[in-house]
Please model this.
Amino acid sequence: MISALMLLVTVWSMATPKNEDGSRLWLRLEKTNTTATVTGVKCTAMTELQSYWQGGPVLLKQKKGMPADAYAIKSEGMKTVITAANDAGLLYGAFHLLRLQQTGQSTTGLDISEQPAYDLRILNHWDNPNGTVERGFAGRSIFLNPDPERMKTYARANASIGINGAVLNNVNAKPEALTTENLQKVKVIADQLRPYGIRVYLSINFASPIKVGGLKTADPLDADVVSWWKDKVNEIYKMIPDFGGFLVKANSEGEPGPQDFGRTHADGANMLGKVLKPHKGIVMWRAFVYAPQSPDRANQASLEFMPLDGQFADNVIIQIKNGPVDFQPREPYSPLFTSLQKTPMMVEFQITQEYLGAANHLVYLAPMWKEFFGWVKPASLKAMAGVANIGDDTNWCGHHFAQSNWYAFGRLAWNPNLTSEQIAEEWLRQTFRPTPQPLPVMEGSGHTQGSELSTPLSHREGSGESLLLDMMLRSREACVSYMMPLGIHHIFAGTHHYGPEPWYSPKGVRADWTPPYYHKADSIGLGFDRTLTGSANVKQYPEELCRLYNDINTCPENLLAWFHHVPWDHKMKSGRTFWDELCHKYDEGVREARSFLVVWDAMQPYVDQQRFDEVQRKLRIQARDAEWWRDACLLYFQTFSHRPIPQDMEHPVHNLDEMMKFRIPISMYENPDCGYTK
Ligand code: GCW
Model:
């Protein structure tokens, strides 16, 4: 590490960069003094290029027959021609060109064609009408009093990475989302986002016909209910002709749904689908369901949705979280993705770091999402949704590096074959390269296939960017290691999910909302037995995986305690016992978190003081939190394992009884100032 740091090549400017607050995100091109020559179709692409493009003339051409949102960029002599079927395609092409400029790549000799993997690339905001954001760690809702300038940056940022939809409100939807008064507010936002190709959607409360409409029932097969929804939908489309549709969380965590009226998920979803169909609207119906009495929460979604396979209308998409439990630092994929055969599906990722250190920990999430795509073929999905990490904090996401997760989500929704590394490189170059330092020109063929970067920065040993890149790429695994390695999951503090509380189990709380339900620590071992002789969750996976996961000797070690109740003395591949391995993993996570501080401190000359200080502060919290996680988990699990902490690692420095008394007085709408600091 130290020798790598000594090798620091000054790719970046040596002059101290101007302070920045992160409000410009990765869109840090300065407006040009002279307007660039841009001709052809008059649309947002034109105004963007006129403001920011520093190259030769650009022609924007419309070509019928190209897939929606696709574009081609071709150099013709001095001129660059962007061709697309629609305005959105031209805009994405324009942003591609600007990205080349901003990342210092060649903008001549171009012959690029791009087409998004999914038609729908959508952010889910969990924003409430009172301005709070559920699991939001970056302030309050940006939609409460939408500031036009801020909305424009939001729209530009989304368009620059291909995001074309936004669900504006929490899936735990308040009925008032559908009042005329609220719809008028939604219309204002829709008008602000439309020029950037972004459609708005709403989460709805299934009981709205009762709560807003004053009906006696919300039974989806009741004629009055259907006609209430028809009228409501007509009202919406009169105001917002390109309204996207509804997102529905039904019969889940106390939300109302069709089952309250003896109907199925398909009955409920199809009724809404039918009402939206004439307007070309869609329904995204969530599969996040689990019952308190279930012996294994991971089994639940398949049990409820498999019998309905093939019964959903063609404008209904089932939205499934990537894992079968709940956005944990590591989960296997939700088996629904390979079991549903006749149902359109979309994946829901969580960009906001509910379970990954909130806005305090630097955790780059692309590797986690790519891991999912290692199991689930991108082509088997219709769309991609991401729970946004955006709020009214000046830097949008609470942590400067959390912006990279918003960025990565958009880029992967456009092209899930991009690598985590490519995306991080792009983001770093745009976000931290000081301006106005001239950008080094990267020679390239100009033909993009996969990466846009012809010389991966990671191959430049020791450059500032490569050290940061390496840190980002390691950060998710580091987080898994210091929070819950080897397949452990859901051992978070009961309410805010920030710190460790593997012991949390107060009387009266649903068992599946307490960590012991998941870790099942006892004198024999640790972990949830989901084998054929346990909860049989493995059976929901294709045969080959079922066999792999079912056998403790073939199950990947990073999912061991997910699928097995692992004996403390189980022999691991390293030769260590499971207990010793667990201790070492936790310690490895702590060391990783500390090493991020070392890397960042070396960046001081190259990053503006403000962002440097703000990130450094957060990295210090992260390193302390990692230690807290390690100490709390190891000391607590040791009360079951009765085995010593191995000699060849750092030993816990905190006391378990004190950590068990520690509380963070925050709600699920806030980012904690810090964790355990004693
Ligand atoms: O992860 C859990 C969260 C809830 C969330 C729920 C869901 C919006 O803790 O805050 O509610 O999942 O995804 O519906």
In short: The chain is about 35% helix and 10% strand. Residues 126, 134-135, 170-172, 249, 253, 288, 326-327, 354, 668 surround 4-O-methyl-beta-D-glucopyranuronic acid (CB under 6 Å). The CA atoms of residues 147 and 189 lie 10 Å apart. Confidence is low (pLDDT under 50) at residues 1-13, 435-461.
